[in-house]
Amino acid sequence: MSALEVSTPVAGERVPVIATRGITKHFGSVQALRGVDLEVYGGEVLGLVGDNGAGKSTLVNILSGSFQPNSGSMFVDGKQVTFASSLEARRAGIETVYQDLSLAPDLSVWANIFLGREQTVKGPLRLVGWLDRKAMARDAEADLERTRIRIGSVKALAGRLSGGQRQAIAVGRAVAWGSKVLLMDEPTAALGVEQQAKVGELVRSVSDQGVPVLLISHNLPQVHALCDRVVVLFQGRVVANLRPAESSVDDIVSWITGASLAATTAAFGALSRGASHDGELSHDGELSHGSELSHGSELSHGSELSHGSELSHGSELSHGSDPGHDGD
Amino acid sequence: MAIKLPAALSPVGAVSPNAGPEGGPPPPRRSAVLRAVDRVGDFWIVGVLVVMVLAFGLKSPDHDLFTRASWLNTSDYAVEFLILAVGETFVIITGGIDLSVGAILGFTGMVSAAVMQSMLNGGDNSLLTTVVGFAVALLLGAVIGFANGYLITRLKLPPFIVTLGSLTAIGAAPALINGGNEIATLPSQITTIGSTEIANWIYVTFVIAAVVCVGMGFVLHRTRFGLRTYAIGSNNLGARRAGINVDTHLVRVYTISGVLGGLAGMMVTANFSVASPLAGTNDELNAIAAVVIGGASLFGGRGHMLGTVVGTFIIALLVTGLVLVGVSGSWQQVATGIIIVAAVAVDQVRLRLAER
To answer: How far apart are the C-alpha atoms of B128 and B187, rounded to whole Å?
Structure first.
C-alpha cells in the first residue's frame, strides 16, 4: 500500500474507514463500474446490493486489491491508497470473503486460515521458512472457537468438508484477520437458514466491535434486517443510499430493478428544467455544492440519492452529502 | 488476529465432531471397507512396491532380485529418475508439467563435459575442474528452468507448450556439441563419484539422489515454500488472493526443476563415465510417470515426495525385475504404461470412496 496523499476531511465530519471516489473499471468494452463513490464507516454494516452485472463483485475485487481500477481514488482512514495486490489490501486490514470462498481444497483447515501469513519456527530453521504447524493448528482452532465455528478437526482437508463448513471457514478466516473492514461477497450463499442466521450474528458481533462490514448479498430480507445502510448499484453506478429503518425490502427491489431510478430521473428532470430557468444549473448539467438537491435531498421511500450518483441524463449530485447513517 | 468475539455467540458450522456436515444428525458409521481405505490413505502404493519386490524376487531364478548386484543395478538405474522426479513433483503439484527435464539432463551433461574436457586439455585435472563442471550444469539447468517459468508466467503460455518447446529445442542441442560424439575425457573425481560404493551396497550417486529426495521432501512438506506450492495447485486464484506471489513462486519451481535436471545430467555422466548426446532421451516420461504413480494429481494440489520415491522404484523395479524373470525390454514399456493407468485409476476410486 502506498499512501499518496492525505485527504482533508471537513471539520466535524466523520472520516470513513474506507471510501472510494469516482471508481471506474472496464473489461474490454464492458463498463463494469462508472464512477462509484462509496463510504464505509466504523461500526456499520453496509449492504451493497444490485442485480447481476451491476458491478458489486467488481467493486469488492477493487477494494480487496484483486483488481485495479481504471480511474478513481480509494481512501483508508482518510489516506489515499492504491492496492497493487490482495496482499497490500490485507496488510491494510481489509479482509474479504469471496463468493467462491477462495479456499484451497487440498490444504487443511489451519493451512487455509494461515495461507499467506504462515507462522514459522524460531531459530535457524526460520531462515528456510520452516512452518510452525502445531502453533498454526492450535491458533486456528482457537480462532474458530472464538468465532464459534466448529468443523471437527482443523487438520481436516478443506475439500472434504461440506459446503456450509467451507463457507464457515472462509468467514472465520476473514473475521480472524480483518482489522479494518470486512468485505463479504455472498457469505451465506451456500448456507442453510439456521447457519445464515449464525453468520448474521457473527457480522453483527464484528461490527459491534467497531469493525465495519460491507455485505454483498442477494438475500434482501437478510440485508434489510442486518444492515444499517444499503447502497444500491445499478449498471455500474451507485443509485441509492437507503436506510432500512425507513425503507422496505420492496423499496430496495425497486432501486435494484431500476424502477425507482426511472421515476426519480423523471422527477429530477422536471426539477432541473425549473432550476435551469432560474439559472442554478451549470452548463454541463452538474449541480454545484450547496444546491438544493445535493445535500441529502430526501427522495421517495425515505431514500437518498448518494454522493456523485450519476443520473441517466448526465447530471451529478455533488460530493460531501451526508452518508445517511452515523454508524451507531 | 484482530477481532475478539463474545462467548455468547452461537456456533456456526457443524455443531460437534459427531454431527452431520450441516450440524444435523451424526452420519452413519462408515463401512469396514471405507475405514480401511481411510487408514491406508495415500500410501497404498507402498504396498504395491512391496508386492512387486516379493513377486519378482520369488519368481526370479535363484531369487536373484534379493542379491547385492540386483539392488545396485536397480538403485543405480533409479538415480536419474529420482532426481528428475523430485523437481517434477513440485511442478505437478502446482498444476503444471515440465517436459523438458530429460532434455535438460542431456544438454547440461554435454555442456559441462565439454567445459571439463577443455579444462583437462589445458592440463587442469584438479578438483576445480569438477566443481566448475557441476556449477556449469546446475547453472545452465537453472537458466533453462527460469526461462520456462518466465515464459509460463509472464507470457501466460501453457506449461505443456513451453516445456515441449524447450524439450524440442534443447533436445537437439547435444548433437551440436563435440560433433555429436560422446565426451569421455573427464576429471577423475567424476568417474570416482560414479563408481564408488559405500559399504559395498550404495553408490555415491544414489546417496546424492537420496539426499535430494529427503531435503526436497522436507521443503515440500515442512516449509512455507512447500505449503504455497500445494496452495497454488489447489486453488491458483485463492493463492493469489491470499497474497502469494504466484508468478514468482512458479518461476522458482521451474528453476528448481531445471537445476535438478542439471544435477541429474552430472549423475548420469558420472555413472557412465561418459557424457552422451543421447542421455536423458524420454526420461521426462519416466519422471512424470513416477510422480503420477506416487499419487500426484496432474490437476495440481496433490502429491507426496514419498509417493514419488516409491513410484520411481516401481518403474526401476519393472526394468530390473522383468529382465530377471526373462521378459523382453519391449514388454517393460507395456508394463510401465499399464501400471501408470492402473495406479491413477485405483487412486481415483480410492478418493471417491474416501469422500463417501
So the answer is: 10
Contact: B2, A153; criterion CB under 8 Å: no
Comparing CB atoms, the residue among A87, A91, A164 nearest residue B22 is: A164
Under a CB-based contact definition with an 8 Å cutoff, are residues B112 and B140 in contact?
A: yes
Of A190, A215, A189, the closest CA to residue A202 belongs to A215
Q: Taking a C-beta distance cutoff of 8 angstroms, is the pair B296, B303 a contact?
A: yes
Residue A107, chain B, CB below 8 Å: the answer is yes
Closest CA to B113 of B51, B42, B187, B171: B187
Residue A138 forms contact with B (CB below 8 Å):
no
Whole-number pLDDT of residue A319 = 37
Residue A315 has pLDDT above 60, yes or no: no
Sign of the C-alpha dihedral, residues A233, A235, A238, A242?
A: negative
- Closest by CA to B279, choosing from B112, B108, B119, B157, is B108
- Of all residues in chain A, the percent with pLDDT exceeding 90 is 45
Q: Is residue A167 within 8 Å of residue A186, measured between CB atoms?
A: no
**CA pair distance B104, B168, nearest whole angstrom:** 11
The closest of B148, B138, B135 to B105, measured between CA atoms, is B138
pTM score of the predicted model: 0.81
What contacts B184, CB < 8 A, 6 or more positions away? B273, B274, B275
**Average pLDDT estimate for B18-40:** 51
Say yes or no: B352 contacts chain A, CB-CB below 8 A: no
A68 residue type, one letter = Q
**Distance, C-alpha B269 to centroid of its chain:** 19
In percent, how much of chain B has pLDDT > 70? 87
pLDDT of res. B356: 65
Domain B78-351 fold is ABC transporter involved in vitamin B12 uptake, BtuC (1.10.3470)
In degrees and rounded to multiples of 5, residue A185 shows phi and psi of -95, 105
pLDDT digits (tens, 9 = 90+) for B143-192: 999 999 999 999 999 999 999 999 999 988 988 888 889 999 999 999 89
d(CA A100, CA A108): 17
Pairing outcome for strands A181-185 and A94-97: parallel
- pLDDT of B35 over the 70 cut: no
Note the ipTM here: 0.84
Q: Which of A113, A239, A86 is nearest to B1 (CA)?
A: A113
| CATH level 3 topology of A1-93+182-328 | Rossmann fold (3.40.50)
Tell me if chain A has a CB within 8 Å of the CB of B28.
no
Beta bridge partners of A23: A36
CATH 3.40.50.300 segments of chain A = 1-93+182-328
B141-174: buried (b, 16+ CB within 10 Å) or exposed (e) per residue? bbbbbbbbbbbbbeeeeebeebbeebbeebbeeb
Distance from CA of B45 to the nearest CA of A (A): 19
Residue partners of B316: CB distance under 8 A and separation at least 6: B74, B75, B77, B78, B81
Lowest pLDDT segment from A64-78, A226-240, B17-31, B131-145: B17-31
